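In response to the reviewer comment on reproducibility (Comment 2.3), we provide here a single inverse folding case reported in full, input and output, so that an independent group could reproduce the run without further information from us. The structure tokens appear first.
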């Protein structure tokens, strides 16, 4: 819960992680994401889109509906629209249960470089859960056999 309840700083994810730890917020949190950080790894332009799953865990006795948003940035240049996409705009997490949402990286859209996204899941009371997603678009590679 420590990572999911951080406060956003002025650094990107490669510089400052998911943000500044907010211990009181983490202690009071009843909903969090698992995993709190998603790595899409290194991909090239030829790589197919890669989808991973975020699980939202609700430890309270009431259902929670989360509104989902995504903010993306790049190390050297802003990522093109659609580099990261969410599978839904909201998710309802049942009491004492989990619900899943997918995030997809489209490496064919970006230039070579590092990209990050912050997925924010906001509850009706304004409580925000943050999940960082990162990907690197690498130069194309080939297998070479020397005889």
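Designed residues, in position order:
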């Amino acid at each position: 819960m420590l990572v999911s309840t951080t406060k956003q700083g002025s650094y990107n994810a490669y510089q400052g992680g998911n943000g500044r730890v907010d211990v009181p917020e983490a202690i009071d949190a009843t909903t969090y994401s698992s995993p709190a950080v998603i790595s899409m790894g290194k991909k090239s332009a030829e790589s197919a889109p890669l989808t991973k799953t975020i699980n939202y865990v609700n430890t309270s006795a009431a259902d929670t509906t989360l509104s989902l948003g995504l903010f993306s940035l790049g190390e050297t240049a802003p990522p093109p629209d659609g580099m990261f996409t969410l599978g839904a705009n909201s998710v309802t997490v049942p009491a004492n249960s989990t619900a899943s949402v997918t995030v997809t990286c489209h490496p064919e859209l970006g230039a070579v470089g590092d990209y990050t996204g912050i997925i924010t899941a906001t509850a009706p009371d304004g409580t925000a859960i943050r999940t960082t997603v990162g990907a690197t678009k690498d130069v194309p590679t080939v297998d070479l056999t020397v005889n």
